[in-house]
Amino acid sequence: MYVDDIRTATDRGATAVGAGTAEGAVPRPAPPTAWIDLARVAAMGAVVLIHAYSPLVTEVYTGQGSTAWWTSTALDAALRWCVPVFVMISGALLLSPRDETAPDFYRKRWARIGVPLVVWTAAYLAWEMWRTGLTPSGAVEQAASGEPAIHLYFLYIIAGLYVFTPFLRTLVGAATRSALWWFAGAALAFGALNQALGLIEGVGGTTAAAQFLPYVGYYVLGWLLFHGPTGRRPLRLGLALLVAGSAAAAVGAGALAELAGEWGAEADYVFDFLSPAVIAAAIGAFLVLREAGLRLAASERRTAALVSRTARWAAGPSFGVYLVHVMVLFSLRDLFGMPAEGPWSVLAAAGYAAVVTAVSLLLVEVLRRIPFARAVV
């Protein structure tokens, strides 16, 4: 997800040894990374849209079964790939074996993820204590669960994956691609099963230390797809998976909510990042974004060059936008409210997403120009 990861993968014609490459063999050139900026920006936009539309999906602002509700549910379902794609991008760029000791890796990653994790956990908990009256004991509970805010669980996922990255690099360097596919598939299957078992009353619950475990499969899968074939066949496969997974999530979650008479745990599971429908959509989105980005980079058209330059610029502050946008969104909703029914609620959510993105970008650009604040975005 981060600019530093891209530089590590692409510095001066870097090469990557494929899984199972014999010692002494000539390593294969590292795959092109020109598409990563586009993928990161698209995923960031999807995150903002999900948070803008989720109150409509969970019926806070819409009536179940209404046109606005079904529209919001379909839009939300079509964007559920965003967080898995972020995880897969990190795996794609960090798991290739390289000459870097574990202490060196941890030192670099702590500067990039550890400081923001601590600072923004404290900031969001303090903000919620002021905004909603969250108690100190409630704040401790949220931090211990790895969810101090609705989006900060991602920092705990990435931090946990970073802890095991040196080991996973060894695995990637020694295992065959077939073995890695089995490993990624089994890890995702266990993640999906873990989430499903959580539907049973009294079962489940995660902590800050274990948030990352269900996402190891996505992490390794990102490396496998990154080093996989490109072209029309992966694009067609990606489109099929993206459409089928998104449709299955929308129909499945909507139908379960209708049967239950409300948006409940069953519908939430279908929208979970580890449900089978979302796993399929995430794989599809990764393949589609990779092919789209590669084609843009290879195109000589002015519009393609403009899109590539814009994505390259927006990718820089995307991490900061992820961190601040929830505070901006909730503050705007508190100030201006939101239409409760009808098509206006759908349009209002889109408007909020656009404004939140612009304000968040502005805030991040300001923070990046302040010496000490720069470290947290």
Automatic annotation (TrEMBL):
Keyword Endoplasmic reticulum attached: no
Main location: membrane
Protein localization: Cell membrane
Membrane-protein topology: Multi-pass membrane protein
Annotated TM spans: 38-58, 78-97, 109-130, 150-168, 180-200, 206-226, 238-257, 269-289, 310-332, 344-364
MF terms (GO), sorted A to Z: acyltransferase activity
Keyword Membrane: yes
UniProt cross-references to Pfam families, sorted A to Z: Acyl_transf_3
InterPro entries per the UniProt record, alphabetical: Acyl_transf_3_dom (IPR002656)
Stretches assigned to the Acyltransferase domain: 34-363
Keywords: Acyltransferase, Cell membrane, Membrane, Transferase, Transmembrane, Transmembrane helix
Family stated for the protein in its record: Belongs to the acyltransferase 3 family.
Protein name: Acyltransferase family protein
Species per Swiss-Prot/TrEMBL record: Nocardiopsis endophytica
